[in-house]
Amino acid sequence: MAILSTAIWLPIAFGALILAAGRDEHAKVVRWVALVGSIAGLLATLPVISQFDTASAGMQFVEDALWIKRFNIHYHLGVDGISAWFLPLTAFITVIVVISAWEVIEDRVHQYMGAFLILSGLLIGVFSALDGILFYVFFEATLIPMYIIIGIWGGPRRVYAAFKFFLYTLLGSLLMLVALVYLYYQSNGSFEILSWHKQALGMPAQTLLFFAFFAAFAVKVPMWPVHTWLPDAHVEAPTGGSVVLAAIMLKLGCYGFLRFSLPITPDAAHHYSTLMIVLSLVAVIYVGLVALVQQDMKKLVAYSSIAHMGFVTLGFFIFNELGVSGGLVQMISHGFVSGAMFLCIGVLYDRVHSREIATYGGVANTMPVFAAFALLFAMANCGLPATAGFIGEWMVILGAVKHNFWIGLLAATALILGAAYTLWMYKRVYFGDVTNDEVRELTDINLRERFMLGLLAVAVLWMGIYPKPFTDVMNASVKQLLLHVAQSKL
């Protein structure tokens, strides 16, 4: 069965159907069709995990067909332990986004829902592609629906934010395209990513390729100092856009480092690992301090996401199993936690139409159930044990200490900073006396919102209490990757 093709094209087909047939006067039907499409997309990804062979380090569910004969470009799909969990994560977040927009989006509902369903399929395509050009097509195509989502349903500065998002990520990717063409000629006319892993390249070529990939993936993560597009995009994006941006799209850059930079340019990755570690620690510490002074809730969580992604790149470039596995776990857990944080901000914004922390105060008095959900997600964002936010960070810190004690110590400051800015925000927004009439008139979350946040709460607790299903899937592939990188270094 074409499991991966189904997972990619089913949500895209539903999205195209909604765009073609949907009308504003049929908004109710469109919402239900979008929900059915997103759930169908999620069900299509479940066999990837349920049928996954955890003992195998190679690619599974492989599909391969010649696409463009002249340039030997293949429609080649497959997943291993590194990419497998990102398929159901993407589809799950899409279901949450559709539910979150049920009552909130009233204009151009069919375009909004269609854009997210198409984006879901394209993102799954990125994580499944094993041909360089196919990867590039999916990688770049994800920009289009997100650009539209920010530009149409965003805030007052949405056009500026959409342009900045598009240009930053597009310009970075152009260097990657040059690198892909170079590898094509070096491998005698093949765009197969797995064949590139076996290429024996000299250090000058590896260095140029490493920085070409760095330009594309560092912007996408985003790493400091090319992170400035993210706070603008988050602040202006609608709630669903912020959720997908943080939960899934930031992972594309991190995934690219594991699929391209480390296996194709292993010697350069080792040589420039100190640079990557320094940039990661700057993201963890400096950006954490920047988050402390934010007055806008979305901006605070956006900077928090940059800091958490710094943990991921740190884990990848310390070259031990704890670090790489911890980085992958952090990517998945951040998908749940950051998505939940942005949804909570969206719940408040839909009622009060303000993201400023100073506007609120005492929300727990009028919305106690919602405040309980928000507290759980805030604690997960801090890295509280038994929540999803703890597992990945702890593994990376252990791996960093094993690599170098001082790097581990600096990385651990993220736990303190994360607790500081997250709890500071929570205290000012939710605790204390009710400060204004707008907060006094708030009503607690409805059944739809409870269901939406409840699903994420279950995911956050499940991953925090029992992370074994996640780590079992990735172990064999992570070991093989590190063995490949170590052998190349020798």
Key traits:
mainly alpha; single chain; globular; 2 strands; 3% strand; 490 residues
Description:
- This protein is mainly alpha-helical and 490 residues long.
- It is 75% helix and 3% strand.
- The chain contains 22 helices and two strands.
- It has a two-stranded antiparallel ribbon with strand order 1-2.
- Strand 1 and strand 2 (73-79) form a beta hairpin.
- Helix 7 packs antiparallel against helix 9 (203-220).
- The model has no long low-confidence stretch (mean pLDDT 88).
Secondary structure blueprint with pairings:
Elements: H1 3-21, H2 27-50, E1 60-68, E2 73-79, H3 86-100, H4 109-128, H5 132-141, H6 143-153, H7 158-186, H8 193-196, H9 203-220, H10 229-236, H11 239-264, H12 266-271, H13 273-292, H14 297-316, H15 321-352, H16 363-366, H17 368-382, H18 388-403, H19 405-430, H20 437-440, H21 447-465, H22 468-489
Antiparallel strand pairs: 1-2
| Beta-strand residue fraction | under 5%
Task: Assign an overall shape.
Answer: globular
Structural class: mainly alpha
Residue windows where pLDDT falls under 50 for at least 5 positions: none
Q: How many beta-strand runs? A: 2
Counting DSSP H or I runs of 4 or more residues, the number of helices is: 22
Task: Let me know the average pLDDT.
Answer: 88
Give the termini distance in whole angstroms.
Answer: 40 Å
| Residues in helices, as a percent range | over 70%
Compressed to H and E, one letter per element, the order equals HHEEHHHHHHHHHHHHHHHHHHHH
Rg over CA atoms, rounded to whole Å, is 21 Å
Trace the largest sheet across and list its strands: 1-2
